[in-house]
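New to this. Help decode both lines:
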Amino acid sequence: MLKKPGGFGAQGGQMRVTRLYTGTDGRSHFEELDIPLAPAAYGRESSLVPAQGMIFRENPEGVWADFHNAPRRQFVITISGLAELECGDGSRRRFGRGDILLVDDTTGQGHITREIQGPREIIFIPLPRELDVSAWQVKASG
């Protein structure tokens, strides 16, 4: 979600995204990414991220999908409702209104999705496979 203006600093800021990816162990894992934002005419914005259309979807409460892979690399933006995703390592996270998820686990064991509160309205934004997100990596401090 977009950080409050006071948290940006003079030169820019970032928008936090959770990435779900397949590790070298063949399991899905979570990591946090910060998309850099720079001053713009109205607020702050990222550079252009190429996309391949949009899909609007509504999932009813109570639906769940056992281990599955993402059908493609895509952003998943929750408009309303709440879902819980579980990785093969047992870690779980909940995603609600305004949360942005980058699903990148198109191979391996995949993840479980549980619709906790619904209906959950979501937008899928398919991304090109070659999109380089390495500049979005959260740098370890210390």
In short: The first strand starts at residue 13 and ends at 22. Residues 1-11 have pLDDT under 50 and may be disordered. The domain at 14-129 is CATH 2.60.120.10 (Jelly Rolls).
